[in-house]
Amino acid sequence: MVAHVFSLWCGVGGNTTYPKPEQITEMEQFVDQCARAGVTILHPTLIPDDYMPAFAVFGNVGFGATAPTAFDYYQLWNPWPLLIRKARRRGIETRPYLAINSHGWQMPKKDSLVKESFPYMLGQRFAVQHPEFWARNRAGQPIIEVTNSIILSLAYQEVRDHQTTHLCDLVRRYDLSGIQLEYVSEPLDGNGVAVTGYEDQMVSAFRSETGRDPFHLPNDDPEWLKFRASYTGLQVKELRAALNRVEKGAGRKVELSVSVFAREADEYLKLFQDWPTWVQNGWVDRVCLWHREADMDAIRRRTRHAAAVISGKGHLTSQISVYHPAAIHDAETLLDTARISLDSGADSLGVYRGDAVHVHSLWDAVTKIGQMY
């Protein structure tokens, strides 16, 4: 019998992504609200932790602008232990999520839903220091030149090792019961296929294995697609193996979950997200199907597909967004989506994110969702 699971995604400050020391009371009140709503797992974003000195401004990689680092937003304090301790006292597990396929960005200066100013030029120090590992498109351009974001190529063992070591260190340091890999949007071509994968390491490996040249193939060539996707799978496989070693040392289970945008069955491979293979191989424990649009037919269809694929080999969470512009922003539709998800085969429900729940006054609906199953 699987324990009851009800997930809520949030910032490390609950309603805030970059909490200040004077917001400790707000953080504690947020956790109390989660407990009253029946939340069993919090997924706070992994941006805010004591690795913040490892972030650098984009001016270091050619933008030339000065901007605060994320570390400046924390006033040199670490909010993580407070959140984790408070959640545990209320019977809530903390399993942070990391946007695993995004390693730096430049965005227009803006405020969050709760009018919190975001740092807008950030890059992971490892990514900034190693441009030789940056993902490239067919024209040989690093993605930063076309999208203002850094993406590291998983064809390089050094990249996979760095991310695995970082995540396992966090699990050990904070005695976490799980970690989540979030797969966010990447630049796509006109056929909806990711444009990355044309780094020397990836191209050379493909030529060696197949005798074919990807520059003479369409971007959506099936063999070339599967080959690039295999490196995303390799990262998941290596992380699972590393977490198994952490489990052995700690004497407890460490859940590895993934969060993927809900798509049609034939679209995941186009983004190198072959999560059905990850489930079949036992590399991930839970798949969170991220519904970001209020399209009930699509939610029903995509959830049914995911449930059929997983079919007892893992856990399926319907991750319902109330955050994004096209997402659900009213209580009635949120409750309908939850019911449809369960009827379509989801094992559990989750809501993204806490700040949007607050802004759209959805705590009563969230509480009702926690009582549905």
Break the fold down into its secondary structure elements and pairings.
Blueprint: E1 6-10, H1 24-37, E2 41-44, E3 55-56, H2 70-73, H3 80-89, E4 93-94, E5 97-99, E6 104-106, E7 121-124, H4 125-129, H5 144-147, E8 149-150, H6 157-174, E9 178-182, H7 200-210, H8 222-250, E10 255-261, H9 275-280, E11 286-291, H10 296-310, E12 315-321, H11 331-343, E13 348-352, H12 354-359, H13 363-370
Parallel strand pairs: 1-2, 1-13, 2-4, 5-9, 9-10, 10-11, 11-12, 12-13
Antiparallel strand pairs: 3-7, 6-7, 6-8
Helix pairs in contact: 1-3, 6-8, 10-11, 11-13
Overview of this structure, please?
With 373 residues, this protein is α/β, with parallel strands linked by helices. The chain has a single domain (6-370), classed as Glycosidases (TIM Barrel). 38% of the residues lie in helices and 15% in strands. It is built from 13 helices and 13 strands. It has helices at 24-37, 70-73, 80-89, 125-129, 144-147, 157-174, 200-210, 222-250, 275-280, 296-310, 331-343, 354-359, 363-370, and strands at 6-10, 41-44, 55-56, 93-94, 97-99, 104-106, 121-124, 149-150, 178-182, 255-261, 286-291, 315-321, 348-352. The protein has a 9-stranded parallel β-sheet with strand order 4-2-1-13-12-11-10-9-5. It has a 4-stranded antiparallel β-sheet with strand order 3-7-6-8. Strand 12, helix 11 and strand 13 form a beta-alpha-beta unit. The longest helix is centred in the middle third of the chain and has 29 residues, at 222-250. The chain is globular. The relative contact order is 0.12. The model is unreliable at 48-73 (pLDDT under 50).
